[in-house]
Amino acid sequence: MTFSKFKRVLVANRAEIASRVFRTAHQMGLETIALYSDADIDLPYVNEATFAVNLSGASPKDTYLNIDKILRAVEISQADAVHPGYGFLSENVEFAKAIEDLGITFIGPTPETISQMGSKTRAKEIMNLAGVPTLPQVVIDHGAEVVSNQFNNLPFPLLVKAAFGGGGRGMRIIRDSSELISSIAIAQQEALSAFGNALVFVEPYIERPRHIEVQILGDRFGDVVHLFERECSIQRRYQKIIEESPSAFLTEDTRQLLLDTAVRAGKAVSYIGAGTVEFIFAPDGTFYFLEMNTRLQVEHPVTEYVTGIDLVKEQLHIAMGGPISDEAKVATSHGWAIEARLYAEDPLENYSPQAGHLARFEIDNVHVRVDTGFRSGSNVSSFYDAMLAKVITHRSSRIEAASSLELALRYAKVAGVPTNIELLRGILTEQEFLNGHIDTAYLERNDPAKLTQNIALDESESAIYLASLVMFRVHQRAMSRRTLPAVLYAWRNVKNADFFDVFVAQGKEMTVSYRYDPEFEIHVNSLEVPNFSVRHVGDDYIDIEAGSILQRLTVLNVSQGIFRLIGPKGSLIVSTKERFPRSSYESPLGSLLAPMPGTVTEVRAQTGDRVDKGAPLLVLEAMKMQHIISAPTPGVVTDIRARAGDQVTLGTLLVVIQEESETNV
Ligand code: ADP
Ligand code: ADP
Ligand code: MG
Fold this sequence. Notes:
By secondary structure, this protein is of the alpha+beta class. Helix content is 25%, strand content 32%.
């Protein structure tokens, strides 16, 4: 490993993590180099670096995953160290080697450690030998026939995983032996297309597990220490969205055992730098090593908060050949920190990532820490991960941390693209979460649609919110016609005619009607909002009085037809249109419609086929995953409307099955 007191750090990454590394590097008196793709030229991190170098192109393959281009940028910029961030090339051993071959410092562990931990199966073998508990596994060799008796010792349910997987992708649950062969085949295909390696393995699937991981630091003097745990059990699609430290689940004894085990794991590979040892906990408190991430983790800020240690500073010092700092060696943990990942995504459409123009992006960063790569006016590109920001709080207790985080998210002014803000708020105020009863199936038990509906607002409160929205829009329309705001109170001379608008809020249709004659009156679902009057209207807010209480509501136009109202009782999503467009044609009985937009990659059935319930009919690739569309009932395939290669939208008719009663099959 090359090390020296470097002076100029290039960050081979983008957005928030590039920004995060620059911040500490500058405080240490170092110069920094940003890399930016054509799509990222206007993001703030580019100008935060001392200099920036363009990687022409926009796709990850042409830019942040392109080793040759990055090496050229290193030469042009005369950087003498490279920080890889997370994702992209951060755990790519060829990249780490290439950097060291240039005679400059790679800020991370040795290529040998990266390679040992890069394969989950090999990592498990190494850890098993070192006495770190692991789950039993069956490794499926490339292309080899799957022999089902190989699995005899493993109890169902099982999980098939990509050996070189990451980001929660390439995993499938296998509930019984009939799914074994096909699930493994699909996982192999997915692994090959996503990670360039088809190697998969099978291990027991733990029901309702908790994900708890340990931050470690190692140096070249052989020291390895831990910086306590982080619990990351709130996940969607095997990806974390809320993380915290400490974990509410651990007793002091289990915590000590876990931390010692993580240090043992680090020592087993002579770990150098900052790394994370991930464990999965069964409900009975037994835990197993999952994988080791040989880089800075997305959720590192919660550890920085509870320990007061700057992890990037430790990384840079250790990479210069220094020891773990004395503060880190004796670090203790104080209070409670929680991080929420704010994503441009639609939780009600299978968390599909959203791209677009972020008209507004303002989050209070006085009371909370905000790590972000965006600002008002930035574009969210569809080429990269849709994470907009990490919002992190630190308070003396878990409940206080949750409520301060909720407040920061509630008042976050984000407009232009749909986000998961309301879902995060919903979780942070939900009772099971507040009681610490969380596990990775939390979002399967708690419907995202419910969590986003702010149940804290009762009927009369949400009626006030809706009435305010209507009056705000009346005012805006009046202003855009350059007429006087006075128009608000009397603008049409048809007597007794009600104006009305229909919305969807809290999962219900809400009709707001109002009239000016003889006096102003406003009704929501036919119930009058008593003593309602508008006091003042601003660019993005309206002050109203209802029943002698004066309150301000902020109105954000999240995206076309969708508003977010923020007020003293919480925030509320209101849409002016139906969420799910009805198909323009009448679907015949027995129609199977596309559950999400995607590409049909394979059609397995033919017209006339007699199929059993559950028979695979076609494969839809959407969001980098393969989804098998299978027969919902036994029957005869009477029509197939999709062909391999077809791009389909949500609700497209794929297959028609004429149902047969079970007894005929
Ligand atoms: P963490 O445990 O820190 O969340 P993940 O393995 O989920 O780590 O990945 C960290 C981030 O990097 C995620 O935002 C993920 O989408 C992104 N990522 C993971 N693998 C890749 C990859 N091969 N290429 C680009 N981005 C990736
Ligand atoms: P990645 O590299 O994608 O982060 P991990 O092995 O860390 O892969 O697993 C990611 C998540 O998948 C875990 O946090 C957990 O929610 C789930 N998971 C992984 N292995 C298991 C298992 N054996 N049983 C249950 N859930 C699992
Ligand atoms: Mg992981």
